Amino acid sequence: MLRAAAAERNKDPILAVLREYAGPGPVRVLEVAAGSGLHAAHCARALPRALWQPSDVDPRALQSIAAFREAMQVHNMLPPIHLDASQSWETWGGTQPGTLDLVININMMHVSELRCTQGLFKGAGVLLKPGGVLFTYGPYAIGGRISPQSNVDFDCSLRQRNPGWGLRDTDLLQQLAEANGMCLERMVDMPANNKCLIFRKQ
Ligand SMILES: C[S@@+](CC[C@H](N)C(=O)[O-])C[C@H]1O[C@@H](n2cnc3c(N)ncnc32)[C@H](O)[C@@H]1O
Predict the structure, then answer these.
(1) pLDDT attached to residue 167
(2) Which residue, of 66, 79, 120, 185, has the greatest Cβ tally within 10 A?
């Protein structure tokens, strides 16, 4: 299994927000960029009415997700699928349009090219049911401004590693949401200067 120190720290704060959107009834969830699989196993176990589909683009992540599923025996977590967020939703494992309640994306946008963020919003816009939610977590620029200084430094270090990486701005995300039939409904402050963003499908 991949090491997941950050996921270990943020899994409970994320779950606390997610519970508000996972409803009492059955919920179909697609997690894009599930990484180690720790969030998938932890949240699916805590939300037994959810049917959780984890995915990632990296074969090592897919192995790790499968290992977490096996080790934690989470019965409402499906085997992971290969999904590249930069590619069309039609390649995302055969999910039909308008059938998902939740699309979840944790800590991917700032460590991938912009086309991955664009693909995430396009795919979520098609696959979510009306009223469904795109739930994202990570560090963001808010209305053109990054704060505090530690996030400014983090953004610089990401852009030095890869000029296509870096904190995404909520103004841009709002535009992408609106272009794909969603709206930014809520921003939740999270520990360590992160946020959960809630985008609602109209
Ligand atoms: C920082 S890790 C976060 C993993 C996990 N969500 C977490 O918070 O522990 C970023 C993840 O994004 C995935 N990723 C990067 N580009 C992607 C893409 N184009 N499509 C899907 N996943 C991608 C990576 O493989 C990696 O698992």
Answers:
(1) 98
(2) 120
